[in-house]
Fold each of these.
Amino acid sequence: MPNASSAAWTVADVQADTGWTYTLSPVESAELLAAVRVARREDKPLLAWRRDDFKLDKALPTLAAAFREVRDGRGMALVRNLPREGVSPEEFMLMTWAIGLHFGVARPQNRASDYITEVKNVGVAYRSPTGRGYSSNAELDFHVDGADVVLLSCYNQAPVGGMSMCASAVTAYEVVKAERPDYAAALGTGYSFSRNGEQSGDEAPWYAAPICDVEDGRIFCKWNRNRVENAQKLDGVPRLSSLQREAMEYFDTVLRRPENMFCMHLAPGDLQLLCNQTMLHSRTSFEDHPDEEKKRTLYRLWIARPESRRLPQSWEVFYGTTEPNAVRGVMKGHNYDEMRRRFDARQAETLGMRNFG
Ligand SMILES: [Fe+2]
């Protein structure tokens, strides 16, 4: 049974009990593809789609169970057997979008205020002041993404590397607390995070928040080394204390211990779901396929979830609101316009969620 401590897992736990993996039956998988093919109009803008444009019924219970696992269970779920054979990248992306419309309010996730992104190596330097890992082939640090849940659907895998890693932030925090309580306390102090130049006009270029915080007896984690390092290069940002730096180094070391770092290879047709409040993720570097249409391709979607939990107050600066069941978590970017605002409001209404935007 899911309980408050299910999110505190070790590699041995998730290997011994694979109840966090789900497989769509052939009937469920076929329904997904049919829903997309019946609805698809090439000229229809992404944000014009509504949940009820995609008639899903049989596939919903399996997907709902995976989302429940993300909130109440281990914080991660893998759904296998999304249709992939003979499916075009455009259909696969729209399928990911259709799943998102049924389970939450998609959030913008970059400078361009995109609501879904193709994760592909386009040669971006991850360590640059505005670099984003999803556009590079670099090995990534453990981090969370910027909304309640991230969906990552795999269209093509890289021939070499590109392994997906997950670790429980709850477990890592508990380990740090047991071994170095002074570091655990430091993780609860304000760290400065850069917005990597993706801020909208009404947002500051950086903000302060703890790496770990507690709300209603639960550990919440918000960690992204790249953004903390980048903030240190900005004017007016307080320097990290040596204790803060040692604490974040220690935290990363604990995350990468073999008993805590779980590796999975996403295969074409896999959908990974992660809770960005208790799970940290990363990826190994990869070599890409020389053929353009065989290059590693995944689709990434960030969503705010109905019936979400209240967040720690310290997260308000980034999430916009800490209220449960609300549209929250946003990297507004530079193009957050009326069309996007309308999408957020309409989708929130469809799902019975609160929208303060
Ligand atoms: Fe990420």
Amino acid sequence: MSRPRVAVVGAGMAGARFAQQFLAHAPGAEVTLYGAEPRGPYNRTLLVDVLTGRYDPDTVALPCGPGARVRTGCEVAAVDTAARTLRLAGGGSAGYDRLVLATGADPVLPPLRGLRAADGTLKPGVHPLRTLDDCHLLAEDASVAHRAVVIGGGVLGVSAARALAALGLPTDIVHRAPFLIERHLDEGAAAALRHGLLSLGVGVHPGRQVRALHGADRVTGAELADGPVLDTDLVVLACGARPRTGLARAAGLKAAEGIVVDDQLAASEPDVFAIGDCAEHRGTVHGLAGPAWDQADVLAARLSGAAPDATYTGSRPLARLTAGPLQYAAFGEVHEAPGTDVLRLVDATRGSYKKLVLLGDRLVGGILLGDLAAVGDLTRAFLGDHAALPADPLDLFTTTEGAAG
Ligand SMILES: Cc1cc2nc3c(=O)[nH]c(=O)nc-3n(C[C@H](O)[C@H](O)[C@H](O)COP(=O)(O)OP(=O)(O)OC[C@H]3O[C@@H](n4cnc5c(N)ncnc54)[C@H](O)[C@@H]3O)c2cc1C
């Protein structure tokens, strides 16, 4: 095969990165991205900054590499892996030699009474936040709303709540788990975060659940499972995301939570691969931009021939939220375990919380919240560069802003 046709289904963060890297290794190759959204790829992690007006939608666009063909508003309706063809929702079909599925994830819509209007669509005033279109609709609605409730206190929920507060809306987060962002933070860091949110006008209700939404023509309140109703005319759903696997399943590809891939990022049929939020590797769906890009880089190196033996063996868990004074970085194992030493520094006045988890002389996890000056050194130490860990790890806590990597 002299010049294989590479098709990428999904023009999101993983698809764009793959195309860009692939074309960097193999200039002039034939790469086509099929994207269901009406615009080309953009940095989804910056949507909240688009919501606050900090970034213009055009400035969050992502490059796909010179010569990549991007077909926007072009949903792929079916894949025939035997014939190696794609059927397009708008009519027509297209062939491929190698297929990369990068279909991302859909927001989870919680099973709440009153979530939908009579016609089955979400009740006016109720919004998911996954795409730029969602962002525009939410911004429009936020400009006429008086109060907001965000359902879900993970990374997305916290960022969305902060953005709504910045737009002048008193906001409440209702979160089922006992503390905020429990996937990345510990209880101490979550308490500091909650304190910071309160000072911005965001109330936090951990360990609580919304069971119903009130209102006929538009949402008027969120009813909690233990009775009280929070008055609101705007609700943001931030209850997680589910890998988009329908296309792959219908094509007979093996899927569990995500499309199952091996260390070559290969799915269960020849010359079909999956990366990003839709992929499940070694039982894990990451749902984060970093791993999506790691996978895209490995696959681009393999398929372009630049590193045909490259494999993906997993990503080190590293999460970062840059939300003004509430920024945090969390990586690795943030909870104490037998044999680990924990260093903690809490500065209630400055609203900062720092924690390192050490196993012998190895840094196995940590949290920085509020003050990220040490994030460069810590990341390097965590990713295996032992030289970056000073003899006294506490010194890392005193790194000054200027020294941050
Ligand atoms: C508001 C928000 C904030 C976030 N913040 C962070 C953060 O701070 N840090 C972090 O690591 N991660 C963050 N994430 C998660 C991150 O955005 C995702 O991990 C990343 O976008 C995954 O890239 P992807 O290409 O797999 O999926 P996506 O970027 O979702 O792209 C998938 C694309 O495929 C398209 N598609 C699906 N099916 C088809 C089809 N059949 N035909 C054509 N096109 C199709 C979709 O329309 C979509 O455009 C955030 C997500 C959101 C929504």
Amino acid sequence: MDTGPFQLPSEIVEMCDVAKRIVHDELLPLEPQYLQHPGHSFGTNQTATNLKLVFGQDVLDHLTKISRETGLWYLMVPEEHGGSGLSMLAQIAIMEQFNYTAVPFPFAHVANILYQSEGDQVDRFLKPVIEGEKITCFAQTEPNAGSDPGGMMQTHAVQDGDEWVLNGTKMWISGAAESDIIMVQAVTDKEKRQRGGITMFLVDRNNPGVTIEEPGIQTWLGTRPSQYIVHLDDCRVPATDILGEVGNGFRLGQRWLTIHDRLLRGPFAIGKMQRALDMSVEWAKQRETFGKPLSERQAIQWKLVDMYIDLQSLQSLTYQMAARADTGEDIRTEASMIKLVSMNWGARCLDDAIQIHGAMGESLELPLTLFYRYLRHGRIGGGTDEIQKMLIARKLLRD
Ligand SMILES: Cc1cc2nc3c(=O)[nH]c(=O)nc-3n(C[C@H](O)[C@H](O)[C@H](O)COP(=O)(O)OP(=O)(O)OC[C@H]3O[C@@H](n4cnc5c(N)ncnc54)[C@H](O)[C@@H]3O)c2cc1C
């Protein structure tokens, strides 16, 4: 495993080799069918649905069995909840392997803030999600509140005895229709808003106050719509289904985004960039024009070099940040940096790979355009490039 200037401990390298074998033996052979099937959709909370729709229940069961038997299922679950207890660095290095292919591998997909569950929330929400019996989605964005949810959020909740009554509309919610639990942010104090006035509610998808518009919004990320508009109309939620404290929901949302979303964009991009580079090197060596392989042309070599440098730099930076997160350091700004560069370098690396492949680069038989679309999307979803830069600038100017 080429990990560039960053030396991974040998036990992590061994775990990565297990992941790599699964990718090569189990997932890559399935990839051509996956890429051309009309039933796949974007989002980690879509993994089971995607595998079932594209390959059927048997393949989903087979891959889930491998995931559970190897312990990979619990890769990102903390030790106190029955998880692997692996460092962030190990998790990231392993996740990178699974991002080498477009075929998703089933893991326990737990939004990290759900570990704030208390009392009977643990049995009703957290445990079923860890075991893959229930799926969650995260509902922050609204038709008029994207980059500035704290300032612009309209969805609000008013207390009525032991319940809260939620009203509002959420938009772009990934996997809402397949989810059992919607993690909804709502304003509970209009004066305080993001400074103690937004609360996170765990809303049952079957609550009569919830309507999810079907068929969802079709984007370029999949062959099946996966983002939804969710209406909350006098949606009554028991006070016991508040996650964390009243007024603490914005902070929780930011926490989810920092680690779960922003830092993990590193391995999400690295795996795809490595695949794009491997494919491009192979293609350049065997494709001939004007009597010579492409690999002998400096114009092509320089593209390969650019891809390699981006990949090595991103890998090194991501591993360093993961190692710092493992020491308990606050890496919020650095996670923004990882998100920003992984999506930008990743998208330009895939752009080069498509160019080197010529017409074949645009074929849906190859994963290149799908990877490109995923990475380009990452410059918007989960906080845009501009918002990451704003967050980094804040730290620069403050310090
Ligand atoms: C496929 C997909 C999946 C998604 N999944 C989810 C989900 O599961 N849950 C969820 O809650 N949301 C989800 N989103 C929403 C996503 O997080 C938002 O789209 C994103 O945060 C940007 O918000 P916006 O689209 O409203 O853009 P806007 O806020 O309207 O911004 C438009 C443009 O202006 C720029 N801009 C805004 N403010 C500034 C500023 N101060 N300075 C400079 N430039 C600025 C932005 O960077 C952007 O380029 C998803 C979106 C997509 C496309």
